[in-house]
Write a structure and sequence with these properties.
The complex is a heterodimer. By secondary structure, chain A is mainly α. Chain A has eight helices and no strands. In chain A, 30% of the residues are buried. Chain B starts with a helix and ends in a 19-residue tail after the last strand. Classes of the chains: A mainly alpha, B alpha+beta. At the A-B interface, α1, α2 and α7 of A face α1, α2 and β4 of B.
Chain lengths: 226, 236
Amino acid sequence: MQSKMEVPPCPSLRKRRQQPWPIRLTHWFNVLFVILLAGSGLQILAAYPALGPRGALYRWYPFQGIAPPQALQLGGWLAGGRHWHFAIAWLFVINGAIYLAYFWGSGEWHRRLFLIRRDGRTTLWQLAFYLRLSKSPPPPDFYDGPQRLAYSGVIGLAAVMVLSGLAIYKPVQLHFLTILFGGYDGARAVHLAGLGLIALFAVLHLVLVLSHPRELVKMVTGGQRE
Amino acid sequence: MSKAKAGAALVTRRKFILSAGAATLLGGCQSRPVSAFLNAMQDWNGGFQAWLYAPSRLAPELPLSAQTPEAAIPVYYVSDFLPQAPPNWTLSIGGLVRRPMVLTLAQLQRMPAVEMRVQHHCVEGWSAVASWRGVRVADLARLVDAQPGARYVEFRSFDSNYWSSWDRASAFHPQTILVYEMNGHPLTAEHGAPARIYSAVKLGYKMVKYLSAIDFLPAPSGGYWEDQGYDWFAGV
């Protein structure tokens, strides 16, 4: 995996483990926080499992009135779910800020961030290889194109979740933010759609990582120094 | 606003109470550090909400076309039956005030009125829009000369004593009013007749319906849902 890179790694990346400890630590805290946020979020959703304002529910939403399974809810009742959600949200944001500060400051972004000029072509190539449209895969890299796209995309998704969450929490005090998401009910829809995308990411991520268990080990031990 | 609606409100209340019991049970299962953490974060979030609240920030006024059909707005109360105003209903205003008063509906209606059509946010997650007409709570405070030491305002009702206490800043917001008219007609019993609190800057459970008394207080006095675990500040 660590043979030839298309972009020379920046000097600070040399002799660093494939998954340095700040990344491992924030990753596993993130797993915990996302699970707690999803559970408490579904508890809150269960109080009004519908999208759209009263008297004008959104027609496109297929699950109007259908509450999420009780087993996935956290908090016991609406007030409990809210307390969990608004408590963990702070930890999620702080953890994310630490991750991003390291991601940027250490230069890790070089080998992790999806950069369209570097990764656009190899992403299509890699996907073509998966679909058997190309006989050979692109040259190996730290992450392949689709991986970079997925991991960078989910960071953007986290930002959307924080902002749409704030828009629902404070539709008057943060009204500019609420407008950005198409109003209070629009922000609720975005927030729920975001949860769906995170769940999709988590399932794919789990399937892929379990089919490449060495990657899972790396996220625990750090892997080799490069 | 049929009986079915009122029945739905009752079911909701029972569900709330049942789940309150469940929460107590769950609270029993929660380890002490977890409860301490959640309580600390609850305090922190209360402070954060008060910090974020800007007294001059107004909720946008909405056009008539945004108004929700009245029958689609849920009807909540905590009594077993739809609360009915006593004959000769009056509103008493007291606490830390120079001139405590008892006002009739006619007297309230003679005060300078304001109208607003804003979005309603329920803690459950739904929103709705209605038009409201009434008197600013800030104007009532001036009328009775609320003292500077009155940093909190308690609204109490004849709906089984349902109540909520507010921070002074939110109670004195220009879009916090004592309402006697909704959507151009006198308040119906379903929506809190003869008078209720309505505000653009709080969640629905802070807006006490079936109003009976307003008291200006030196300390917060909790609230019906707040004392069961719901967020006290509950700003939006």
